[in-house]
Amino acid sequence: MCGIVGYVGNEEAAPILLDGLKRLEYRGYDSAGVAVVAPEGELQLVRRVGKLFRLEQELGARPLRGRIGIGHTRWATHGRPSEVNAHPHVAGPIVLVHNGIIENHMALRSALLARGARIASDTDTELVAHLIHFKLREGMVLEEAVRRSLLELRGAYAIALLSTEEPNRIVVAKSSSPLVIGVGEGAMFCGSDIPALLPYTRRMVFLEDGDFAVLERDAYRIHRIDTGERVERPLRYIDWSPVMAEKGGFKHFMLKEIHEQPRAIEDTLRGRLHREEGDIYSEEIGLSERDAQAIERVFLIACGTSHHASLVGRYYIEMLARLPAVAELASEFRGRDPIVGPRDLVVAVSQSGETIDTLVAAREAKERGARVLAVANVIGSAIPRLADASFYTHAGPEIGVASTKCFTAQLVALLMLAIWLGRRRNVLDPIKARELVEGLARLPLQMRDVIIGTKQLVSNLAKRHGNARDVLFLGRGFSYPIALEGALKLKEISYVHAEGYPAGEMKHGPIALIDVNVPVIVIAPRDRWYERTLSNLQEAMAREGKIIAIASEGDEAVHRLTQDVIEVPEVIEFLNPLLTVIPLQLYAYYVADQKGTDIDQPRNLAKTVTVE
Ligand code: M6R
């Protein structure tokens, strides 16, 4: 989605803004712009369509002068990508950037036109700048003009603006779209996302919905939009390092992030495994023993890849904590008046912690009295802030649009949650729990072995099958969500049509698709579903599908059936998804790389989906 950066301090603003925008490139965009105000109030505005290098070239040829500015990368919602629709937008002395969607834009546009506003773009954003400008003309001071204008907006927004008449302050505001303030030494920053600010400061303040803030070089103040009342928000230290958000010698962030999985898992497990007791330490889950026993149902709500992790999590919770559990797409859960209440635990799973459907679904569940637990990767993001408690994954910043390391980190977080619940509810045998905990502790090394040990083979298979038009992924039990995830990875970055199916459903329709041109990737590790999955593999072979099997090490039976076998270490069955997904991530990566697609920023996609 769109990205915002702002800076006020002692340095030249333009290079800092450009650097911040580059760090937000992964969010996806179609145009970009910066506005810098010189000390005497001269506004310098540059906007370009397309990739950031166009903006960079222009700034190189015509450097901007000034120590305060705002920048933006735009992902078009209102109006096609064009220079005039790119942000920042200007109305009188007001210069403004915005993420999100202003829902009442049509009424606003008519009212502003009736008052004589000269609106240059098709965007909803420019309207906000005009609204503020009119209020300044009515005699309001900047802060009040902004506050009063925000009261007239409906929808989601994160806004940063400045006035050429007061070139020492940036005003920012937030409603259902992320915005963070970075507190530096003699400098203040704002951004829609943490990585934009990491090289400059790790001290961050997260605005709440309905907050606006005034940033000056040495200070910031936060107020409520509705009352104007001043409020305090906690200053948080973000321990991600800027290097974590760089490619580190890899061709793409996605490949780097696939390789980072062992570390992401180690960090997510750190301090949480009680190996002697076969238990999980976690205050963060935010439930007492009695609460855990009183829960009657668990809902896991999420979108996309996080939904696939939730589908596995659902099995974990049912099988280990013996609680009825369902994994629901947040976009389907919200708004249908779901039957959920005080005896239910709702686990909202989200890498970014900002996905609008998951956020709204969690809010609706909370309003009905359910206890909400967030499983998120971004500290202080909207979903954890709304939740009653947060059990964070510690995967570090994920930049590639295709989620990889956050998916596996979510799986271990959900497995830990299931073990914790199972122990508290006295339904999980301590010996089995110890086996699981020991298995988790060994996992990072095994993941490393899978990455190193399979990538050449997977890359060769991608060369052989990369031109297929359709690919089918099959799995049962824990491997069914992994089949869905393998298909999603392949389609989102390589644009190849792919379907994930529960292997048992194959006979009920998809088998008709199989012929000599269709690779069928069968996930068949040794587990309780193994024999039946093997029958499905044979059925696909009988239709001349090209079978690639993901199997446990040394599985001769699978080797006899097909020559293309990718082996993963044999582990306790609950851990299989953490290993079997890796070759599928690599397969998608190598197919896409061979096709030359934009792997880290696939077409039409954005890293964080904050609009509906
Ligand atoms: O930040 P979230 O985990 O809430 O995001 C949910 C989906 O948008 C996300 O997983 C998406 O499906 C990824 N691009 C998949 O790789």
Structural write-up:
It is a single chain. The protein is an alpha/beta fold and 612 residues long. The chain has 3 domains: 3-245, Glutamine Phosphoribosylpyrophosphate, subunit 1, domain 1; 250-428, Glucose-6-phosphate isomerase like protein, domain 1 (Rossmann fold, 3-Layer(aba) Sandwich); 454-600, Glucose-6-phosphate isomerase like protein, domain 1 (Rossmann fold, 3-Layer(aba) Sandwich). 37% of the residues lie in helices and 23% in strands. The protein has 18 helices and 27 strands. The strands form 5 sheets. Strands 3-2-4-1-10-9-11-15 form an 8-stranded antiparallel sheet, with helices on one face. It has a 7-stranded antiparallel sheet with strand order 5-6-7-8-12-13-14. A hairpin with a 6-residue loop joins strand 7 and strand 8 (170-175). Helix 7 (261-269) runs parallel beside helix 13 (405-424). The longest helix has 36 residues, at 430-465. The structure holds 5-amino-5-deoxy-1-O-phosphono-D-mannitol.
- CATH structural architecture of the largest domain: 4-Layer Sandwich
CATH topology of the largest domain: Glutamine Phosphoribosylpyrophosphate, subunit 1, domain 1
Largest sheet: 8 strands, antiparallel
The coarse overall form would be globular
Bound molecules: 5-amino-5-deoxy-1-O-phosphono-D-mannitol
Strands, total number: 27
Number of helices: 18
Percentage beta strand: 15-25%
At the first level of CATH, the class of the largest domain is: Alpha Beta
Regions with pLDDT < 50 over 5+ consecutive residues?
A: none
Radius of gyration: 25 Å
